[in-house]
Specification:
436 residues, alpha/beta, Aconitase, domain 3, 3 domains, 5-stranded parallel β-sheet, 4-stranded parallel β-sheet, globular, binds FE3-S4 cluster, iron, lyase
Length: 436
Amino acid sequence: MKDYNMELTYEEKEILEGKKGETMRKALKSVVLYGETFGAKRLLDIDGPVHLVTSFGMTGLDTVFDMMDEIIKAGIRTKEPFTVDPRPIDYDNVECNEIQKKVFKGLYGNQGRYESQLKKLGLKDNNAFTCTCYMPQVGNIPRKGQIICWAESSAVVFANSVIGARTNRNSGIIELLCGIVGKVPEFGLVTDEGRRAKWIIELKTSKLPNAQVLGSAIGMKVVEDVPYITGLDKFLGKGMNSSTMDYLKDMGAASASNGAVGLYHVENITPEAVEKGRDLLNKGYSTYVIDDQELKNIIESYPILWKDMNAKPSICFIGCPHLSIEQIYDWSDRIYRALDKRGKSKLKLNTVLSAAPDVISKFREDKRAYKKLTDMGAHLTYICPLMYMSNSECSKQPVITNSNKLRTYSRARFLLDEDVLHAIVTGDIKEAEKFD
Ligand code: F3S
């Protein structure tokens, strides 16, 4: 057996000698080499389900699909049923023209094959496609202190920060391999040391900032370091509740995509900050003060990548990361009020709200609320808007969004929630009236 720098258990050594088959040997070897690259000295047992980032059967990823076939053929499954990121296509709820459909057919030609592979590997169920697998309706909710292995950046930062579970920002496929061997290398955010903060973020704004902009500011400043945020409890209150969780979900996703944050602590709110307070700060930490002017500067720094800056938007995506059920109700109410104020009943812009299939099903059970939202012309979908945008045909459309992650990775134009409301009600972008 090759010499490894890591301390390995008897069982791990046996697997690396091929005692549990060639496929398991290769899977564990990949996990060990991955850990050694980051200086891990040993492996830890995973004690929660994995969540996979690779959810799309993209043409050209044949190596991945062949590897999946090999794992299935060896009779290996993940230790616990897993969840996976959103599906890329939903023609029923996200309008596509014939050319776009042709593009998607070419791009995601292996979707059927991939989904059937996922089922054989231990996919939770047919609804398990969402980046917010930790929603109560979906149920892949780790517990505080649990060691897990996830890769989806918005889910990683939520699990680490809001729940207090422990996972690195792993890459796709590695999380699957860790899931089937049931182990993760011990480094970074799974260690006490790696969870300490190198930054203190002092929030000094006059009101609660837009979560997506605050996350963006933090991410761009600290990049991959752990920040300790003070001043948010003044607006959100102490402790955790569902609206604080939604706020932190959106803030975290922006910090993870505009930077590479995998964990943040919020004073008096997130579990480890509640427990340890400023003891979480490293000696010699840096300070970043965020006030109203700083956030204004951040928003003004976003480039607009539309070909025609004055184009009328053609589609609006809300829900990246996927919305919670409370956020769907909230958007429905805000849209209703904004329309009502103008004496209108229908949206002028194709407006798509994304959420987990299980969250949508739950919302649909409330027939009146579902009718109210869809009668106004809004659509509910389970797709990932970024996967919709990631091709030349769709990305040339003037798309607006309130998601800083979607803005960062696509040509979509970012608007604050009140400007999004104005745009979807009037069909136009201009300085927003205040609807609420
Ligand atoms: Fe989720 Fe896709 Fe956005 S995975 S966070 S909806 S880019």
